[in-house]
Amino acid sequence: MAWLLLVYLRLVRRLACLNITGAMRSCPTAALETLLGLTPLHIYIQKEAALSALSLKTVSSLKLMQGNLRGHLEILKDPCLNHLIEIKTDLIPTEYNFNQPYKVIFSSRDDWAKGGPQLKRGALAWYTDALKTVRSGVGMGISGPNSHIKLPLSSDLTIFQEEVLAINFCTALNLQKGQKGASINIFTDSRAALKAIQAYTYGSALIRECTNNLRELARGNDVTLWWVPGHSNIEGNEKADKLAKEAANTPFIGPQPGCGLQKSHLKQIINNWEASKIALRWKELPGHRQTKSMITPSQNKTKEVLCLSKGDLRTLSGYLTGHVPLKYHLFHIGQAEDQTCRLCNDESETAEHILCNCVARGRLRHNVFGKTPLLPTDIKVQDLSTILRFIKDLHLP
Ligand SMILES: [Zn+2]
Question: What pTM, to 2 d.p., does this model score?
Answer without folding.
Answer: 0.69
